User: Fold these one by one.
Assistant:
Number 1:
Amino acid sequence: MQRWRVIHLTLRRNRLTAFQIIAVSLLVAAARAASGEPPVRYLSEPKIFILETDHTSYVFGINEQNALQNLYWGKKITRDQDFVSAHTPEAYPFESPEGMANEEYPGWGGMRYTEPCLKVTLAEGVRDLVLKYVSHQIKGDTLEVRTRDINHDLFVTLSYRVYPRHDIIRKSTLIENQTKQSLVVESAQSGVWYIPPGVGYRLTYLPGRWAAENQVTQEVVNQGKKVLESRRMVTSHQMNPYFALDYKGEANEESGRVWFGTLGWSGNWKIVVEQTPNQQVRVVGGYNDFDFGYQLRPGQSLSTPEFYGGYSEGGFGEASRLLHHLELEDILPHQPPPRLRPVVFNSWCTTEFAVSEENQRQFAAIAAKLGVEHFMIDDGWFGERKTDRAGLGDWYPDPDKFPHGLKPLIDYVHSLGMEFGLWWEPEMVNPDSQLYRQHPDWVINFPGRPRSEGRNQLMLNLARQDVKEWAINVFDKILQDNDIKIVKWDMNRHISEPGWPEAPVAEQKQIWVKYVANLYALIDRLRAKHPNVEFETSEGGGGRVDLEFMKRMEQINTSDNGDAFDGLGIWEGYTFVHAPKLIDGGVGDNPGTNDRSTPLKFRFLTGIAMGGAFGLCCDIRKWPQADLDMAKTMIAYYKRIRQTLQNGDLYRLASLREGNLAAQEYVAADGKQAVLFAFLHSQQFSQPAPTIFLRGLEPDALYRLQPVDNKLVEKQQILSGSYLMNHGLDFNLVGDFDSAALVLERVE
Ligand code: DGJ
């Protein structure tokens, strides 16, 4: 076995500290380089590109028609010579060889009938695009392959980046109009992933809706197409840009082959999962082509979103862990340096718009005593914002609620030893606001037509440079004038009447791309000017969460659903893609959503279990002393284990989708600590809760068991990893909404 593979396996077996992992990764990279096998290589004889991660190979070649053709994606193939040149398939009635070939980036042209990656209309009306290989460039972990249409100077550069230790590859493209006339791009996809041919694949995906984000859903793939998409100018609660495929349902949490991917785009996106008549499953993703029509003048170009794809043989659990580590190490902002997420208090669930300096001081005084580290003030602090009918757009403190501005409150919060955070919603305006009265033309609209309101608000057209500059100035000033550590960036409606009347008619549809690009630019400018400020994405809960947005956000406002039981399901779906560290778990008051009441301990433990960013959103002014005491104990407990929760490996041990019990385990990066949580829905017929089998421990290591309560049946205080993983543990969970937590410390 190559030296670097041995090192990697050793790394996986013996859990190491973050520092050791970086050191070993460098060693692995050096060993890989020394072994003469760079992660991206071109073999000129069979004309193939090999993109290699630690455990996977992704291979495509240049076929006899000079087109790029995919050859393989899956478990690593260690012998390059096993691959021969790409050849188009034999002709078949009513098909063409090129149409049946797994083309790496098919244009819509010739006899091709599957979902294309690129569709254009050229100036003279030609709607035929056939792309051929021109050249390529390899630099370290990246590959760029340039292609050109057979007749026109329309160039498409396919870009790849390999993330070796995450077993993930990223694709995107750059479309350049080098012709002498304008053209219209009607569909611009980031790429296509091909799964080994076969019938009976199962798709796992994450649909949802407001307050019910990311519901894990599975179905068999049949001939035809399944479209996952957003047409709402945001990533959306309604569908997460994620897919996973396994063969005939063979994969589970712990094992089985899983091909998975996720798209980084915070506007209209589309993923098409297609099974062709030739039993080829392919997944195309990129911009949503609905109402697209992006005009490119001569010399102009358009880049597509980044589409990440990975492969694992460790089932859905390992596929998720690969994405979590990609996100933690390569996606999230690194300035300010990543830190453990603080315990947050926010009074929104109690006060809503009725915030005032006085009531915020009351909350802050109690929160500080409980151990809260970050005090956030939500909606309602500005303009005439007494309800959701007015004030959005007028970003100055409401003088009735904060007669001396925000500073006295911020100083008070700081004097209690907490950080201060602020909510805002920059992209929106209430018609009842000074901003709208001054600039009614700044909103997205079609002249003379209705301006549909969502939550009594309209969307500012961020695609306009003047609106973008206004936003930069306003929010930059707020950050200059106030000592703010975390900004909660909200957005509480979706687009309608997507007009941009000031732009030339031929370019008005560019709003779909330019709005989002300017939103990114706005956040990037603010982050660059205020490098110590962190951001939380909120879009009425989790409506704008994708890998491109997460390059700019430190945490996620998970959901507007405060029900602890519902939260378990929402959290589970999130963790298919996103690292638990980012997922803000919180404690609300009874009754919550569904008019459901759950025990305080259940609410705390679910909040902690799901919480990278754990917090309270409840009326602690009204809590009895016993509840406040529990809060203090639980917050201290959370601080003891949050390093493991936020930076460790997650194992989803039991799911409410499959039974009455949810259980999750986190194992610290250095293997010294593990934490287990178990949640019972409803006991029936006095049945005991099922045994929980732990994962990810060292079989021969000993672990000291430290239960947080009296629920653990096992009386031994020290047990081996092999016992914990094979014999498992039982918990005396009874009645409704019972819960248990256990810390395991490795005995040195
Ligand atoms: C929606 C968010 O999800 C809530 O947490 C809160 O910030 C409200 N908006 C405020 O309007």
Note: The two ends are 31 Å apart (CA to CA).
Number 2:
Amino acid sequence: MKIALFDDWRLGRVEGDTLVDLTDALEWSTDHPQQSLPRVLADPRALDAVEGPERALADVRLRPPLPRPPKVVGAPVNYPLHQEEMALATTIWDHGMFLKSPSSVIGPSDEIVLPFADRSTHHEGELGVIIGRPAYRIQPEDALDVVAAYTCLLDITVRGDEERSWRKSMRTFTPIGPWLVTADEIPDPGALTLRCRVNGETRQDAATADMFCDVETLVAYTSWAYPLEPGDLIATGTPDGVGPITPGDRVEVEISGIGTLAVSVSRQTGPAFADWEYHPARRAASCARS
Ligand code: MN
């Protein structure tokens, strides 16, 4: 089942080009959509028979299907060809996981905003995994039991030497959507294809089978460090083909069995890095000890 949030955080089931509005049929709180989601995800089949008013998908404003996940966990260097293109000797097993700010999440109707006009900022198309049940230090063979759903995700990244979490947590830096696909529709998350296009040109084209750390192991590995909670989101890492995005671009991530997330890059950007009030060279003097 495809579950979408739309307009003023209403809940819908996607059926082709149609969206069935389930908001009034269920005890769904448009004031607290993130808190209402775990109950829905715990038993998605209960939604199968629920009816509601139908809307054309094209007529609604799709929101991020997780408005504010408790945490967003990222997987660094999880595909061999991405490791190669970044000229790294290390993999996810050397780095562990990193955290992205939940406030970086946006949906298909929002825009990515580049924080600096002149810093190279890349698209990283990724499979997003949504946790449905609490989990701490679980084994890989039990991991898919705690996965509730999947979605398309962009791990937008300023390239550079700052901390990963700083470069990847900027406002608008985690587009997700266009909806959640419940886990029953994706029996093997290691058998998906992922493509990322910029302005129609294919930049990334890969198979989730190529991950160093597959989804089952990734959920278990993450749960060893961070207790997982319902609604948590794991970005499973990007394949090769990452590259810069620029103002006005249209970025798409298409994953088999899920759909296509399309977002635009705003024509407005932040300042040039050299002009930034917190540029390190401008601040170094004030931090120097006498
Ligand atoms: Mn990434």
Note: The longest helix spans residues 215-225.
